[in-house]
Amino acid sequence: MPEHTSFFTYLLAMFPALRQNMTVFGDTFLGHQPVDVHGAEPIASSIFVMLVVLVLALVVQPKLANQDSAVIPETKLTLRTFFEVWIGYWYGLMKDMMGPKRAKRYFPLVGSLSVFIVISNFLGLVPGFTPPTSNWNVTLGCAALVFVMFNFYGFQASGIGYVKHLFGPWLGLPYIPVNLLLFVVETFSLFIRPLTLSIRLMLNMAVDHLLVTIMLGMVAVFLPVPVLILGTLVAIVQVMVFCILTSIYITLATEHDEHDADAKGHGEGAAHAAVAGA
Predict the structure, then answer these.
(1) pLDDT attached to residue 251
(2) pLDDT score, position 261
(3) Is the dihedral of CA 145, 248, 165, 156 positive or negative?
(4) How many C-beta atoms surround the C-beta of residue 133 within 10 A?
(5) d(CA 141, CA 102)
(6) Is 45 left (phi over 0), alpha (psi -120 to 50) or beta?
(7) Cα 198–chain centre separation
(8) What are phi and psi of 221, to 5 degrees?
(9) Is 22's pLDDT higher than 80?
(10) Minimum mean pLDDT among 36-40, 81-85, 171-175: which range?
């Protein structure tokens, strides 16, 4: 591997104290090797992206704090306009998928992930930087967060009923093996979701960044432009795939409580109507 694959490895190598402090990360999970400069690169790039998101939020927040001026759209494309369009798109998508009540409750997770992933993806189009999302440690961390949260939301919304729905509809005593088989299949599909989410995002961004790097290395003018356009499309599509699937998982995990509440409401309404008619 080259000595410096990005600005982050170069900066980390410039400070010997940082190299010594990398021992606090321990050994790698798969190779059981000490973390070196290249191993710390995804961590540094992820911290950099989070700092960028924090700075952008601090710049945009005062413009939205004043409700009187916030309702007036700006005449040109600004950071505020971008965030309004971006956040509004994802909130509208979730509202159409799960309803306004649940969309408002679960939007912070999807909205935060969308901003982090889109900035990480576009960072790979800047020469000298590598996208954090091209590393499986980062994408697996995002997918693990999604896995923990949508299961937490499911238990929060339905309680033990969230586990019961994994067995499928009750078919009677003779069909208990069928319900057990459904439970095994549903549980397997549940635990495979973070793997598919993380590997899909990692592979697409790693291949896209590699292709851009090869084109820039061959010809640095004009020829890489179509590849950069393709990279932009891939970066946006991968954000959409990751966040749409996250929204679907949350919808599936929390819809049982909605159905139960609706059924209970209809049953109570019918009971009241029967009493009133009597």
Answers:
(1) 92
(2) 46
(3) positive
(4) 33
(5) 24
(6) alpha
(7) 9
(8) -125, 135
(9) no
(10) 36-40
Amino acid type, 143? A
Nearest alpha-carbon partner for 23 in 11, 10, 37, 13 = 37
More confident residue, 187 or 30: 187
Task: Output b/e per residue, 2-15; b: 16+ Cβ within 10 A.
Answer: eebbbbbbeebeee
Task: Return the C-alpha torsion angle 42, 49, 208, 93, nearest 10.
Answer: 130
pTM: predicted TM-score of the whole model, two decimal places: 0.80
Under 8 Å between Cβ of 124 and 134: yes
Contacts 24+ apart (CB under 8 A), 166-170: 166/190
Amino acid code (one letter) for 255: E
Beta bridge partners of 27: 34
